[in-house]
Amino acid sequence: MLGWVISCHDDTAQELLDRLEKKYGPLPQCRAVNYWRGLSANMLSRMMCEALYQTDSGDGVIFLTDNAGAAPYRVASQMSHKHSGCEVIAGIHYALLEQMIPQRESMSSSVFRQHIVELGTPGVTSLWHQQQKNPPFVLLHDLYKP
C-alpha cells in the first residue's frame, strides 16, 4: 500500500486527514504534517522525514501538498530524490483525495502520480511533471565525454 504524507499550510493537512478518517475510518500509513508560519525549513524537514518513515511499507510514499513551490512542496521534493518510490503532488483538495483512497492499494507510485494529476487537472501537478517542463541542467562537457 502506498503511504500518504499530507502536508499543507496552517491546519489544512490535519483537517483533510480528519475529514477523510471521519468518513472512511482510520487510514493506515497516512500522516498529516502542518506547516505554520514561522516554522523553520529544518523543522518542517524533520517532521516530514518522520512522517515518511512512518508511512513507508516499501511500496512507496506520496507527498500530497497544497501549493507547488511552497515550503512543503520544496521539502518533499528534496526528500523524494533520496528515496525511491516517492512522488510529490501539488494542488490537492478533499474531493481529489477522496477519489484516490481506493487507488492506494493497487497502484504503483508512478501510476498513482499520473492518475491523480489527470483527475485533478488543471490545478494539480507533480514534481515529475514540472521536471518534464524544465529538464535538469546538464553541462555541455558532460554530453561529450568519450
Number of domains: 1
- Helical content band: 40-55%
- In the CATH scheme, the class would be Alpha Beta
Helical region count? 7
Rg on CA atoms, Å? 16 Å
Per CATH, what is the topology? Rossmann fold
Q: What fraction strand?
A: 15-25%
What is the 3D shape?
globular
- What is the fourth-level CATH superfamily? Phosphotransferase system, mannose-type IIA component
Can you summarize the main beta sheet? 5 strands, mixed
Walk across the major sheet and give the strand order.
2-1-3-4-5
Count of DSSP E strands? 5
Distance between the termini: 43 Å
Protein name: PTS sugar transporter subunit IIA
Keywords: Cytoplasm, Kinase, Phosphotransferase system, Sugar transport, Transferase, Transport
Domain PTS EIIA type-4: 1-124
Subcellular location: Cytoplasm
Give a structural overview.
The chain has 146 residues and is an alpha/beta fold. It has one domain: Phosphotransferase system, mannose-type IIA component (Rossmann fold, 3-Layer(aba) Sandwich), CATH 3.40.50. Helix content is 47%, strand content 17%. It has seven helices and five strands; from the N terminus they run βαβαβαβααβαα. The protein has helices at residues 12-24, 41-55, 71-80, 94-100, 109-120, 127-133, 140-143; strands spanning 3-9, 30-35, 61-65, 86-90, 125-126. It has a five-stranded mixed beta sheet, sandwiched between helices. α3 links the parallel β3 (61-65) and β4. The chain is globular, with a radius of gyration of 16 Å. The model has no long low-confidence stretch (mean pLDDT 91).
